[in-house]
Structure formats: structure tokens, C-alpha cells
Specification:
There is one protein chain. The protein contains four helices and no strands. The protein is 86% helix and 0% strand. It has one domain. By secondary structure, it is mainly α.
Length: 92
């Protein structure tokens, strides 16, 4: 997995994590101010750590020659993925 793909994955994870954290914090506190404070700080720190966690595991799998199943999951999402890959390969 390249650096740009890791960054994109990290950003989408951040949005998802912040959304969940804000909602959970609101349900528990009943306050949007508290929910936003918790929901913005904790996911930001967690996302920062997640990026390095993903990079570590990618390098670990590569060194150990463990098959990276991320690509299989992405490729199994539908036939449009194959078409997009062909289009992107022809652009380079």
C-alpha cells in the first residue's frame, strides 16, 4: 500500500471515527459542546496513531512476505474496481 493510499485511508477513518465518537459522547453526556470536544480530540489522536499502525503492519507483512488481503477485499467489492484500475493504469 502506497503512502498516498495510506493517507486517504487514514482520512476516511478519521471522518468515520469522529462521527461515531461525537454521537456516542452526545448520547452519554447530553451536551453537544462536550460531545464535540471529546469527539474531535480523541479521534484526532487515535487517527494519528492509526496511520503509523497501518504503516508498521504493511512493512511487517511485506518483510514476512505475508499476503496482503487488503487488495483482495478491495477487488471483491465489485466489477467497477477492475474497470477503474484499467483506466488509471492507462493514464500513467
Amino acid at each position: 500500500m502506497g503512502l498516498s493510499l495510506s493517507l486517504m485511508k487514514t482520512c476516511t477513518y478519521a471522518v468515520m471515527h469522529m462521527s461515531v465518537a461525537i454521537c456516542v459522547a452526545y448520547v452519554l453526556s447530553g451536551s453537544w459542546k462536550i460531545a464535540l470536544a471529546i469527539g474531535m480530540v480523541e479521534p484526532f489522536v487515535q487517527t494519528f496513531c492509526y496511520f503509523f499502525h497501518e504503516r508498521f503492519w504493511h512493512r511487517f507483512e511485506k518483510r514476512r512476505k505475508v499476503k496482503d488481503y487488503h487488495d483482495e477485499v478491495i477487488n471483491s467489492t465489485g466489477p467497477i474496481v477492475g474497470l477503474l484500475e484499467k483506466i488509471l493504469k492507462h493514464r500513467h
